[in-house]
Amino acid sequence: MNPRGIDISDQNSPIDIASLPADIAFVAIKATEGITFQDTAFQGYYHALKNDRPEIIRIPYHFFRWQDDSIAQGDNSLSCGVDFTEPGTAPLMLDLESNGTDVDVWMAQNLHLCLARVQEFVDYIFQKTSRQCIIYSFDSFIKENLAGRTWPNNPYWVSSFQSTPPPLIPGWPYSFWQYSQYGQVDGTTTGGNLDLDWYIGTQDALNALANITSQA
Question: Which positions of the chain have pLDDT values less than 70?
Fold first, then answer.
């Protein structure tokens, strides 16, 4: 079975990290958004994972704001104190999706700038961390808002709420699949729903992504 995980932010009800089920292999945690916002739940969840459940892989993520400078967004995401060389920490995940109808109109008028900003962000994070960002998005958003642009050097995290695996984008197979936004994980919330995910690969491959070397 593929490793499974969840992605969380301060929008979720409080989650008891220590009580996560044994088969949760990774947790993506919202860290930042745009050039100034830092998620109030990030530090607590991130350090709880490190201290209470170090076997669970940690994936910080940044929500991209299309009208904000990409380098300033990169600096915001890097200011949270995450050591991306640390075993158990995966590369930063970059969340690419709509910021609202007005921004979608602006994106259509500034497509080349938007694509350049994504590239500038991932290049900057690679320069600073030596890790290629994971890119999260919807196939429909990529096709309709980003003119079908892909980033094959970056692992792809597809969001597609369905019971069967979604089709692949040619040349950019997904490594993660968010298959539900209404999931429940026993013992972890006091209400509300969770985003549920699969890693499309082996636990060894997921470990390698998170700087965990195989033990002889």
Answer: 186-192, 215-216
Cβ-in-10-Å burial (0-12, 13-18, 19+) of 196 comes to buried
Burial of 153 (0-12, 13-18, 19+ CB in 10 A): exposed
In angstroms, the CA 51 to CA 54 distance is 6
The residue extents of the domains of the chain are 4-209
Q: According to DSSP H, which parts of the chain are helical? A: 42-52, 70-78, 101-109, 111-129, 139-145, 203-209
pTM of the model: 0.95
Angle at which helices 70-78 and 111-129 pack, to 10 degrees? Answer: 30
Which CATH superfamily, name and number, covers 4-209?
A: Glycosidases (3.20.20.80)
